[in-house]
Amino acid sequence: MAQLTSDTSVLRNETMNVLTAGSSTSAATFGWLFYYLARYPAVYETLRSAVLEEFGTSIDPEHTNTASLRTCKYLQYCIDETLRLGSPVTMTVRKAIRDTTLPRGGGADGEAPIFVAKGTKVISNFFLSNRRQDIWGSDAEEFKPERWEHREHNWEFTPFGGGPRACIGQQLIKIQVAYIMVFLVQLYDRLEPLDGDCRVTYDTTTNNRPGNGVHVRLHRPVVA
Prior knowledge:
This protein has seven helices and eight strands. By secondary structure, it is an alpha+beta fold. The strands form four sheets. A two-stranded antiparallel ribbon has the order 1-4. It has a two-stranded antiparallel ribbon with strand order 2-3. The protein has a two-stranded antiparallel sheet with strand order 5-8. Strand 6 (about 200-205) and strand 7 form a beta hairpin. The longest helix is centred in the N-terminal third of the chain and has 32 residues, at about 10-40. The relative contact order is 0.19.
């Protein structure tokens, strides 16, 4: 940003935008990640094995940096799967500033171009698109990090939006969540949900987060 402008007001406002918006988004993402990991113990066990192998134990930790967090594949799979099912932003709204045509969305099958008149509002609903079985498979409602093993990020997955107006804090959010998860996974070998099998609820007042909070018990292994 400093390479694009020397206006201190712009720099300050953009920095504050990342820090303030990023904190609540990171918290919401972290909440959903704990929510799902507590309900999928096999996933947590696999994640812990990957973290201990990559970063060591809490007693003898390895150096952790941005590069190593990004290359820990299963950790990134878990974060992406959390963003798919618990996207902190459920939708975006854009308004056409001129007449235009989108390449898809028209016709009986939705594959033909579609005209968008100036002033038309276009809503992208991530909550619904991230659960489409024609994109994610019949197990779209399941928390399954392994689905990311052979999948590349594209326009089917845009939890932070896309293009020039995508969320500028998306990498900050993913790194924050990854760093905290490594620290906690090193400490605790098991998560247990304390709210049973109650139906999931959503609080979308600001960011999308678990409606009833996240109530879990963390088990710390005894070190001989």
